[in-house]
Amino acid sequence: MPRPIEAVIHPAALAANLARARAAAASARVWAVVKANAYGHGIERAFAGLRGADGFALLDLAEAERIRALGWRGPVLLLEGCFEPRDLELCSRLELWHVVHCTEQIDWLAAHKTQRPQRVFLKLNSGMNRLGFRPEVYRSAWTRLNALPQVDEISLMTHFSDADGARGVAHQVAVFEATTRDLPGERSLSNSAAILRHGLANDWVRAGILSYGSAPDFPEHDIRHWGLQPTMTLRSRLIAVQQLQPGDTVGYGSSYTATQAQRIGIVACGYADGYPRHCGTDTPVLVDGVRSGTVGRVSMDMLAVDLSGLPRAGIGSEVTLWGNGPGGTLLAIDDVARAAGTIGYELMCALAPRVPVRVDEDPL
């Protein structure tokens, strides 16, 4: 039989989370953000759950081609725009909208020969200091774009640096409003945290991590608070059981020492499957739906879990590393990420190619 690890993608949960974003930003149209191969879920596997969006936002042309190949004829936005002049040819052919965040991209548009003007999103650097025109030059960039016959409609956008934290978004909203006052065009400001935490909705909102069942402002709020559902489950089974005596150690480096008699189970999952190696003892797991924790170091192909208080657990018992467990139980990916000192985004995106992935067939 194959190794008993698998990831399960839940399209119904994707659809429910997208509906949650729409409810929180009822006046806006919603981009489903599918960059990074739909946050590790796979664009093709996630598409059915996200096709209720008004558009798809992503990073590169290959992802855009995949969305079009799935039959999507609505808006597709390149969030980082074009990377070289010839990208504009594919933007024309695939009817892609794209972000303009630097002078070079305007130069490429000015030199582009096309009979079909393109829709662009002019990005303002309102304080994130990654991409975008600074406020003092933003309007001149808009004026130059507006004069180009290669450009059809210009939308205005920015990105928040602190929507998930105490600083919030007001300072960047103020910069955006002051800079874009009286400029025509649709607006797109809000990421997942701004949608849920601040209820900020303009013409377009960008539903990223919330679509995939992770709370954008965890640990202040969890997915239950926001009414989100896990969209990826990583699960495996126990392949061995060990009985420890006081003083016995577990795994490489002997980082865990038993202080009393203890049963542990060995799970077919390790860092080569995408499970974080730096997760320490007591990282949460579910064993047959009961919450427990890891023991010792994660190795390449295996990890150990505590079976104290689980007398019925044995070889073949189901272990939920994150996501939906048996009997309606739940282990949010954010809880695992916190134990690993990271965020749910990274765990989703780090799922290894060797892990079999299937799509849950529960109806949407």
Written description of the protein model:
By secondary structure, this protein is an alpha/beta fold. The chain has two domains: 11-216, Alanine racemase (TIM Barrel, Alpha-Beta Barrel); 232-359, Lyase, Ornithine Decarboxylase, Chain A, domain 1 (Beta Barrel), CATH 2.40.37. 27% of the residues lie in helices and 24% in strands. It is built from twelve helices and 19 strands. It has helices at 11-24, 35-39, 43-50, 61-69, 87-94, 103-111, 135-146, 170-180, 192-198, 223-226, 333-339, 344-349; strands at 6-9, 29-33, 55-58, 76-78, 97-100, 118-123, 151-157, 187-188, 204-207, 232-244, 249-250, 256-257, 262-267, 284-287, 290-295, 303-306, 318-324, 330-331, 357-359. Helix 1 packs across helix 3, helix 4 packs parallel to helix 5 (87-94) and helix 7 (135-146) packs across helix 8. It is elongated, with a radius of gyration of 23 Å. The two termini are 31 Å apart. The mean pLDDT is 97.
Keywords:
single chain, 364 residues, alpha/beta, TIM Barrel, Lyase, Ornithine Decarboxylase, Chain A, domain 1, 2 domains, eight-stranded parallel sheet, six-stranded antiparallel barrel
Strand residue content = 15-25%
Report the CATH topology name of the largest domain: TIM Barrel
| Distinct helical segment count | 12
Structural class: alpha/beta
| CATH class bucket of the largest domain | Alpha Beta
Mean pLDDT: 97
The CATH homologous superfamily of the largest domain is called Alanine racemase
Number of structurally distinct domains: 2
Number of strands: 19
Q: Helix proportion of residues, in percent?
A: 25-40%
Gyration radius, in Å: 23 Å
- C-alpha geometry: elongated
Please give the oligomerization state of what you see: single chain
Q: Major β-sheet, in short?
A: 8 strands, parallel
Low-confidence residue ranges: none
User: Per CATH, which architecture of the largest domain?
Assistant: Alpha-Beta Barrel
User: In order across it, which strands form the biggest sheet?
Assistant: 8-7-6-5-4-3-2-9
